[in-house]
Hints:
The structure holds two protein chains of two kinds. By secondary structure, chain A is an all-alpha fold. Chain A has twelve helices and no strands. Chain B is built from eleven helices and no strands. Chain B is flat. In chain B, 41% of the residues are buried. Classes of the chains: A mainly alpha, B mainly alpha. Chains A and B meet through helix 2, helix 5, helix 6, helix 10 and helix 11 of A and helix 2, helix 5, helix 6, helix 9 and helix 10 of B.
Amino acid sequence: MNTPATHAVSGIPLAHRLPRVLQSADLWVKVAAGAIILLVWQVGVGAFAPRFVAKPIQIAQAFPKVITDPAFRAAVGSTLGAVLQGLAIAMVAGVIIGVAMGRVKVFDRLLNLYVNGLYALPMVAVLPLLATWFGYESNARLATIVFAAIFSVAINARDGARSVPMEYLEVCKAYRAKRRHVWFDVTLHSSLPYLVAGFRLAAGRALVGAVIAEFFVSLEGVGMYILAHARAFQHNEAVVGVLALAAFGLFFEAGMNWVMRRFLPWARRG
Amino acid sequence: MIELINSDARWVRWLTFAASILLGVAIWEMAGRNANPLFMAPLIGDAQTPGAAVRLIDFFGESQFRDAILSSLLLFSTGFVLALVVAVPLGIVLARLVLLRVALESYILVLYVTPMVALIPFVLSILGFGFWPKVLVVFLFAFFPMMYNTLEGARSVKPELLEVAGSFRSPEWPIWRDILIPYTLPFVLTGIRQATGRALVGMIAAEFFLSTSGLGEIIMVAARTPDMANMLAAIVFITILGVTLMRLAQACERKFSAWRGIDE
């Protein structure tokens, strides 16, 4: 077939096609680099570190055992469940606070100091306080997650609600749009990219909050699984727990990127 | 009335700001006086039970607390500076050596999204107690945001510029001075801002879970006693510290953000 399109492709100078050629080469470079990193890890730790320190081959051997361990599954379920529950609470409350701050000046001026201050406060510092208030049980973990997540959601929702173009609101006013349409269809809609950005930030912080709370309160969960095995010098098993956390972080990151590309392609990247 | 409250006049803004602080203080004070003293302390309190603000001012007079604050700051700055010294040159080298960048970027991303708190138990059981294991924790918290953002900067360097510099046989140092550093600097500063927040978390976490010291120790001791006024005072101090550092980092970031995407 001699359509103009195929001509066009073959007419592109090599320099412009190079990135595509490079991409497949990239993969090999990455794999090779990964292999070198693992090799250095294995040999270096084997030569210089105590025997209990995790090594890649031993981690790989421990991996299937840990994954099929019901205790590990329960720990993952418990942590993820708490993170999702906390994120849901933080998302709803944070969006309400943030949108109110973004659109109503009084709320903004009254709350800005506190929201920004609490956002800058490292959440670990309030852990003992939350543990005192909510008891040394799973409520303290949930509270930590909500605390860790809510302020980044609120701050981003505020910026989002502020970024609604004035023209949209003027059109709403001109056509006497109902209040709920102004809030849900215009304000919330046009701040969606900000909400996604805030949610992404919140998810990372929520995960950290969950793990720290588990360390502190000794709750069943991935954090406690890692801590208990590291203490018992079973580092290979503990590393699998860390991998689970990293996988959750990556999964969420990838999911958010996908949502951005699929549903909000007009928003800036990242 | 609503017009007045929402107006941008300076005195209205200051009045609402003052009202915000007063309201916060009042709510805290009420909660502190009426709640069980095991759970909550007032902000100001009275002569018998001094509140958090009073305790905070006392902190600066007691050498024990001054030392705690200094030891926390020392821990923070050692870890932070070490991370900076390692991450930024490494990031710029990655801007120069594309092959190395391609090889390592995925792994850096993975470490960037891994919650570093999860590594604290390993640091504890391999390196034990002492100052340097805690520095390592702060380092780990601060390093990856810096590294990740410097890497983003490295990606933003236009290959054309490097090619032109190369074809004019530019020596290595001018390439760094005129292309690599100006392009990566705004991103480095974003990394520094992100790292500030994370390193503070790392500092407190290290002081909680490794050998207790500094502000973390004050909070831990207060939680066990329990002495809510001390705990809240320490938390307020950490908040002020956090806000100050963040503001500082944001100001630096904003100063250089105009450099980002010079010719786009």
